[in-house]
Design a protein that fits this description.
By secondary structure, the chain is α/β, with parallel strands linked by helices. Among the domains are: 85-254, 3-Layer(aba) Sandwich (Rossmann fold); 500-597, GMP Synthetase, Chain A, domain 3 (2-Layer Sandwich). Strands 4-3-13-12-14-15-16-17-18 form a nine-stranded mixed beta sheet. A hairpin with a 5-residue loop joins strand 3 (73-78) and strand 4 (84-88). Helix 3 runs parallel beside helix 10 (286-298), helix 4 (89-106) packs across helix 8 and helix 9 packs across helix 10 (286-298). The chain is globular and about 75 Å long. Bound molecules: adenosine-5'-monophosphate-propyl ester. Adenosine-5'-monophosphate-propyl ester (PRX) binds at residues 241, 286-287, 359-363, 381-386, 406, 476-478, 490, 493, 499, 504.
């Protein structure tokens, strides 16, 4: 069997590359699947629980632990110095049972929020899955966030339990602990104790992870454990994401999201028994939860997770030494690998690798072709969002790839491209939208709701949730076009959100943090194109009178942003005493971006006249 790869956007004569896949996909051809697939069929691939109950952690862990995979490695942790720690499915079952018992002992009820602010360590995975076993809602926080994004999310989520380490606690939690009135329990992982006086008691509700888990394990051995009888529509996951305006939005997902996590992992990632899977996304973001924890564990494979930051040599070493068979990563990482050339890849035995998949930002066509040169495998792009919970569009295994295209809609997913209005979003007339009829024409990408991992609301913000739907479609905020063969091509965002190294950043959150500096009168934040990260955050700052726009102040503002925001802080700051405004007084980010890029400034009719 050969696989055909076409280059070109369906126009002109496409270059055809033929190759023989290392193993034919198990999941059936794209056409067959699209014709026959129903979400009810996918529900049957899972176990379920008595009385129609469903729990993500049961599907991910317990059913394998009691069905022949008890001794198989579920999670293999590589720490920074590379020795490994492993948890089998049986060990993971026991630890997650114990954590659920710990939550029950603390009186944490179903539906209440449990967060992690942790590096990729066993405690993170145990918390995530144990919280689900208790019926609590798991909410991951990205460990590179600074204190401000962490505080904001803990507050918005009314989070009751946080699991973190001593260092993160001291720098990111302790300074705001008093104002976080819902945060009752903080479990501290690791040997390092808090920098309190040796004899001083820990702050109320602050508990050592190890002792809490030891006590819960004794209860487990004595009394056993019964998983919470969660219903398919009970909330399970809370993922914060960002829009153009306002505070972060908490997308709520329910337990039956696992049906989509499982099916899409099989379809798009082609996972099968015996696979060794590595997803490089941090579990603090949705990819690292849906496809770094839930999806692959529901398939009963071994998941490799690495605590260290990107390093090309280290990554090739992991792929080789761990015999990784399926690799899910992001374009920024692939571009960083590309910079090192193909020689580094060729210096490693990567023969175990069967399938490479990418997500989160546009994947340049060169990267797809480079994959063939470096790995002997093309890179399969996939598209989805925090709100969709699972992959919606993909270069399905075995399907001809068009480098530069995100692929075609997954089985069970209906998409449309909608005609746009003046604001760049889908044009709505009398509550109706118009689907673009011809291939190759840009419009807002929309999805027909109905798959199990679709978000159910934005936490405490039903108005914002309602606004995401028009005329029976979910509006994604992305602009795309579809070619004559149904391949979807990403064009850009219809709004001002920034994608930096695959991470979605809300400009408002960055602007609000910078506004707290006494020198700042006003600020507008944009994504500035960057060859490696896709975009970097750039802030345009108007100073209060009495401040000089000099290099010292610029550096101070960069540091101020970094201390508050961590990884989402601006990398560049420019001073601008005449920021462009709309007539209603909002900074026109679109215009700042056009000026930064030297592009036409477009329609300025809504702009405030110059004084
Ligand atoms: O703009 C699209 C971009 O990432 C957005 C979703 O980001 P987030 O909610 O953080 O979800 C992360 C899980 C993927 C999308 O609206 N995006 C995602 N995948 C691609 C992409 N842009 C271009 N190509 C992709 N393959």
């Amino acid at each position: 069997m050969t696989e055909t790869i076409l280059t070109g956007a369906g126009s002109g004569a496409p270059r055809t590359i033929e190759r023989t896949p290392r193993r034919a996909p198990l999941i059936g051809s794209y056409q067959e699947r699209c014709q026959s697939f129903t979400w009810n069929e996918a529900r049957e691939w899972l176990d379920g629980m008595p009385d129609g109950c469903l729990n993500i952690a049961h599907e991910a862990v317990d059913r394998h632990a009691s069905a022949g995979l008890a001794d198989q490695v579920a999670l293999r942790f590589l720490d920074r110095t590379l020795p490994t720690q492993e948890l089998t499915y049986a060990e993971l079952r026991d630890l997650t049972d114990a954590f659920a018992i710990a939550l029950r002992t603390l009186g944490v009820r179903p539906g209440e929020r449990v967060c992690t602010l942790l590096d990729r360590s066993p405690a993170l995975y145990v918390t995530a899955l144990g919280a689900l076993k208790n019926g609590s809602v798991y909410c991951p926080l990205f460990p590179a966030f600074g204190p401000e994004p962490v505080r904001e999310r803990l507050e918005l989520g009314s989070v009751r339990v946080l699991v973190t380490d001593a260092e993160a606690y001291e720098h990111k939690i302790a300074p705001n602990r008093d104002s976080l009135t819902s945060l009752e329990f903080v479990l501290i992982v690791g040997d390092r104790s808090l920098a309190t006086e040796p004899s001083a008691p820990l702050p109320t509700g602050t508990l050592p992870w190890s002792e809490t888990m030891a006590a819960a394990t004794s209860v487990l051995h004595r009394d056993g454990f019964t998983i919470a009888a969660t219903r398919p529509e009970d909330p399970a996951l809370l993922h914060f994401t960002s829009g153009t305006t306002g505070r972060p939005k908490g997308a709520v997902h329910v337990h039956q999201a696992v049906v989509a996590h499982h099916a899409t992992t099989r379809f798009a990632l082609d996972l099968r028994p015996g696979d060794i899977f590595w997803c490089t996304a941090d579990p603090g973001w949705v990819t690292g939860t849906s496809y770094g924890i839930i999806g692959p564990l529901t398939c009963g494979v071994t998941v490799v997770t690495d605590a260290a930051d990107f390093d090309a040599g280290r990554w090739y070493r992991i792929l080789e030494e761990q015999h990784v068979t399926v690799f899910y990563t992001a374009p920024t990482a692939l571009r960083m690998l590309m910079r090192k050339g193909t020689e580094l890849a060729h210096g490693h035995n990567l023969s175990a690798l069967r399938h490479i998949v990418s997500v989160g930002e546009p994947l340049n066509p060169e990267a797809v072709v480079w994959g063939l040169e470096a790995f002997g495998l093309p890179i399969h792009d996939t598209w989805w969002q925090t709100e969709t919970g699972a992959i919606m569009i993909s270069n399905y295994p075995g399907m001809p790839i068009r480098p530069g295209s995100m692929g075609r809609p997954m089985p069970g997913i209906e998409i449309a491209v909608l005609e746009r209005g003046d604001d760049g979003r889908a044009a709505v007339v009398d509550g109706k939208v118009t689907v673009v009829a011809q291939p190759g024409v840009d419009g807002e990408l929309a999805l027909r709701p109905g798959w199990p991992s679709m978000f159910r609301t934005y936490l405490d913000n039903p108005e914002r949730y309602a606004k995401a739907f028009v005329d029976g479609w979910y509006l994604t905020g992305d602009v795309a076009r579809v070619d004559g063969d149904g391949y979807v091509w990403f064009v850009g965002r219809a709004d001002d959100v920034i994608k930096s190294a695959g991470h979605l950043i809300g400009p408002f959150e960055v602007e609000s943090a910078l506004m707290e500096h006494p020198a700042v009168a006003e600020v507008g934040v944009i994504g500035k194109p960057d060859p490696l990260a896709g975009e970097i955050v750039k802030a345009f700052v108007t100073l209060q009178t009495g401040y000089e726009p000099d290099e010292r102040l610029r550096r101070e503002l960069i540091m101020f942003g970094r201390r508050r925001l961590g990884s989402v802080a601006p990398r560049e700051i420019a001073f601008d005493q005449a920021l462009p405004h709309t007539r209603s007084g909002k900074v026109m980010r679109r215009l700042l971006k056009a000026r930064e890029l030297g592009l036409p400034e477009g329609d300025l009719s809504t702009m405030e006249p110059s004084p």
